[in-house]
Amino acid sequence: MAAPGYGENGSVIGPQNLPTTSAAPGVWSLGEIAESVRDGIWPAPFGGWFATWNPGIYTDSGDASSSAQIALDSSDNIYISCTTRDSSASMYTGAIAKVQSDGSGLVNNNRFDVESGGAQQDIRLMGLQVAGNNLYISGDRISSTAYAWRAKLDSSYAVQWFGDTAGDKQFAQSGQETYANTDMKLYVSPDEVSAIHVYYGYITAFSSYNAIMMPIDPATGFNMNPTTSSSNYYPVQIYANPTNFGGYVSGAGMNNGRFAYIGRAFSTSYGGYNCQYGEVDDGIYNGWSGMQSARLSPGGSGGWVNGVYPNSPKIGPYRATGTPGEYYWNGLLDITGGTYNGNLYITKWDPYTGGYSGWSLGYRYAINAADSPATPTLFNCESAPINDSTDTYAYFISRDNGNTPSQNYLFKHDIANQANIWQRKILIYRTADGSSVQNAAYFRDLKIDSNDEFIYGIASLSTNSVDRQECVVFKLPTDGTGEATYTVGDYTIVYGASTATGTAGDILSFNTGADGQNQTTHTSNSTLTQTVTQPTATWTKS
Amino acid sequence: MASDYYYTTGPNAGQLKPGARPETDSDDVTTGLPEGIPPQPDDHESTPYQYDPVAGAWVKLIY
Predict the structure, then answer these.
(1) CB distance from B49 to chain A under 8 Å?
(2) Which residues of A touch B51 (CB under 8 A)?
(3) Are the beta carbons of B48 and A200 separated by less than 8 Å?
(4) Does residue A29 surpass a pLDDT of 80?
């Protein structure tokens, strides 16, 4: 027998209300409240979840997953990826899956292999971007001669293109080892008009590895220069001074109009290690000469002896379209050295009105050692900050250095008002081993849905000093609810309040010098084939 | 809203205006290592390293 409806006989007398999961209008009687609770309509049920994903590709003892990524398509379908390693065969390959929105299971699970002459290549899949309904993936081949690669798949995982017009293997310099990671990867604008492939390789003249930022056409995968030589879309390379220190990108971002990069950088001209960053249109028009690039130091002083620099800074684009919103960026800096050593610092860059020094709205978080049993002293940057659809709130995640365990911290931050909205710690450990042994989760990607209701993250794991096959995936409400201890398969996940101390204030100092140039040594060669198969995964939800 | 740094209209929209780009030292390419920094590892051509000033050592980026 159906339960009586609201305001009907057998129910309660009172005004007719139509509660939904997000609204409870009108004047409520106690009975109506009881009925809504009974029906699971109000209060809104918790829609978040934690889950573990084992792609089921390499499942022997010692095999492991790494470089996990997450992305949402325009309909908020959830895609995840990682690299999976066969330890006994020293083989690597890629995994991609689609997750049901309620976390109850996978829609599909895929293995992405690359072959050369019929032989499997030990490739790592380290970048996953979804634009429209297409998946843009990227990574490298790890053994000699290492190369970077990029590909576009449709939503059925059919390969649309792989590599460049001149070849499928991408090298920073001919014959030199070239790699990728979860920051140096393929970036695609949400409107699929532009893309920048970031990777890094050995440059013999510099005696070091240096990052290249290559504009490509997302429709074909071809690089913009020299394929369209009249276009002036030049790839650029950053480097150190002296060059032997190498030039690496630790964070990059892209929206429909602009591209930006950031990284820890060395320069004897500017006191040793500091931070180099730059911003340019999404095609890198005019190459290095068109890029507004400079250096900053948190805390007002630099120098490697008393080094003050962000260790692995990230940068995230604003989502506003057009001028000037698409020029805005959030920088997230994990400060090493100086007065604010160990702080996590978020700040807005507005190059449109402020040029290279147009950073403001700074806010730093100092870790509270009491939030962890392992007495951590600092925050590490793990993934780029993301904004909600109105660029009101930024979300970011950071890992502490406690080790036994290391915890992650998820923040909701009011950018304009320089205020923390909420913060939560995330502790993940194998239940059988406990939390007091080595434990770390590496959240290298964070996303938000189109309604600003949920944020999504994914991490590879190292627990009890063993790299694990499972990745942890979460979907959590943006209102911060869901604090609890979850049991997910072999793992315990504690999601609870944290108490990092927040302080508003601008602390950056700037130098105009930046080291970069148009990249002229890059090359592509060879033909590779790709295979997509469907292994059986293990998915466990809280 | 106009910008002192970028063209906002016309064929150069989105590009830096002349003089808006900060001075760079891109011509100042030097090699070698400062005094006190240990030499690059022998396999630094095949394996990427980054110098960690806290540890005072070159750290592999690939494991």
Answers:
(1) yes
(2) 245, 266
(3) yes
(4) no
pTM: 0.93
Sheet holding A292-298, edge to edge: A251-254, A258-267, A272-281, A292-298, A508-511
Interface probe, candidates A67, A147, A208, chain B, greatest B C-beta count within 10 A: A208
- Tell me if chain A has a CB within 8 Å of the CB of B33: yes
Which chain A residues are closer than 8 Å to B47 by Cβ? 177
Q: Tens digits of per-residue pLDDT, B35-46?
A: 889 999 999 999
Residue of B nearest to A200 (CA): B48
Give the rounded distance of the alpha carbon of A454 from its chain centre.
Answer: 16
Q: What are phi and psi of A424, to 5 degrees?
A: -135, 140
Q: CA–CA separation, A292 vs B22, rounded Å?
A: 7
Q: Tell whether B25 lies on the interface with A, counting CB pairs under 8 A.
A: yes
Hey, where are the domains in chain A? 1-39, 368-499
pLDDT tens-digit readout, A192-250: 999 999 999 999 999 999 999 999 999 999 998 755 556 789 999 999 999 999 999 99
Q: Determine the residue type at A491.
A: Y
Task: Say if the Cβ atoms of B25 and A291 lie within 8 Å.
Answer: no
Chain B residue closest to A517 (CA)?
B26
CA neighbor of A92 nearest in space, from A144, A117, A127, A57: A57
End-to-end CA, chain A? 32
- Which amino acid belongs to residue B9? T
Give ipTM to 2 decimals. 0.96
| Long-range residue pairs from B51-57, CB within 8 A, at least 24 positions apart, any chain | B51/A245, B51/A266, B53/A272, B53/A273, B53/A304, B53/A307, B54/A307, B54/A336
Q: Please give the single-letter amino acid code of residue A68.
A: A
- Which residues from chain B sit within 8 angstroms of residue A352, using beta carbons? 1, 3, 5-6
Q: How far apart, in whole angstroms, are the C-alpha atoms of residue A282 and residue A280?
A: 6
Per-residue pLDDT of A478-527, as tens digits, reads 999 999 999 999 999 999 999 999 999 999 988 888 999 999 999 999 99
CB contact under 8 A, B4 and A355: yes
Interchain proximity A206–B31, CB inside 8 Å: yes
Alpha-carbon separation of residue B33 from A200, B30, B36, B55 (angstroms): 21, 9, 8, 17
